[in-house]
Amino acid sequence: MLKTREESREVLYVDEPLPLVSRHDIAVLEARVEEAPFKRTRLCVHHDPQDRLHEMFIVQSPRTYIRPHKHMDKAESLLVLDGAADAIFFDEAGAITSVVSLGDYGSGQPFFYRIGEALYHSLLIRTETFVFKEATHGPFDRTRTVFAPWAPDERDQAGADAYKLALIKQVRSVWVPS
User: Fold this and answer.
1) pLDDT digits 0-9 by tens, 54-65
2) Who's near 38: CB < 8 A, 6+ residues apart?
3) CB 150 within 8 A of CB 93
4) Burial of 132 from C-beta contacts in 10 A (0-12 / 13-18 / 19+)
5) ω before 177 within 30° of 0 (cis)?
6) Residue 176's pLDDT is what?
7) What is the set of domains in the chain, with CATH numbers?
8) CA 140 – CA 125 distance, rounded (Å)
9) Confidence of residue 177 (pLDDT cuts 50, 70, 90)
């Protein structure tokens, strides 16, 4: 079991020099996800927001709303460990350009992607939990993430719920799983 420090209800940081992540550590994140304010939890295996490489194990639920966003001047990769989700990619105006159904390695679905340019993206979770490892460049700088102006802020619960429902309907009516 990893020694961690709690940054917030949603964020834990590893507090030891050699992080060895186990199934138990992911289970701790899964147990916390429904009580987390935005229905997501993460275990940061980098030690500090100023680190040059950020690696995180993230758990999200179907109730998680990920506001479409893009990252300026940095890459991001996602590796699915468990569960299923739709990765949605948008153009600058908010039109869906592609949907990729993700699953773990054994699912036969794509289980990894890497975004190397500023591209609006989001996730719709399709299983009880979706567990993935994300890696990106540090240091953490909120100004390097641009949130889609056409999507509601996550603090607007009613707006976020309505947008997410409309997105789900659009994805299900138009896109065939990859």
Assistant:
1) 999 999 999 999
2) 10, 64, 65, 154
3) yes
4) buried
5) no
6) 57
7) 4-174 (2.60.120.10)
8) 25
9) low
